[in-house]
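From the shared-data thread, chain only:
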Amino acid sequence: MNRDILDNQGKPIPGQSTRTARLWDCVRRTWKVWVPIAISMLISVAALVISGLSYRQSVKDSEVTHRLSKLDFRPRLRLYSLFISHGKTPSQWQLTNTGPVEAVQIKVEMISHRYIPGHIPNQKKMSISMKDSSNTTTIQSLQPQETKSYRFREGWLDSNARIQEPPQHNVMEILVTYRHPHDLEEYSESAYYFVNPDGFWVPEGSSSLKGELYESLRMRLSGVIREGPGSVYKEWPGNPMHTNK
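Structure, as tokens:
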């Protein structure tokens, strides 16, 4: 049973008891012992919390690094061709860098391919392929999101790219090579164009290219085309380019 603490007049002090007084007396006498212990415990708990947070952050950093390692930080050149003049806009081709880094040492070559049925049975390549160095364009660099436009060489679309009749047996290739600015790794991609039944140059994905002839042309080009259009073309309105490896 607790006993009240009395004041100097012999009256109990409200809220005070012998047990409470003894407790506070013990605290006052032992604080030099328990305070360092309490501080040590707090430091240990804080260290555990910091360690846990650091581990979580390291996991996040590792995940970010892993994701970044899968990204392709290289220039990506996309091609758009206009074969018919519109008003004051001449027939031309445009090159855009949709990648995050600059492209350097860019070279664009125009190549003519000719399909001759029965020329060599079961041949998986075009019968004739020709290119002219005078129809090659060099570009020093192309910054991210930058576009450069160039006219087709005069006479190229009307005669040079059409080796002979019938025009539908001719295929035009625009070969683009470029390098990464840091390690100078080279990339090579090609876009292919066909003469449709109406006699107009169109990209390979045109809906007007139907029938056995165009299937034969694509089959022959399979010896040149090594990879189909990348997923980027789902968002890009230009002409698909195939990777040359």
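Residues 82 and 229 are 20 Å apart (CA to CA).
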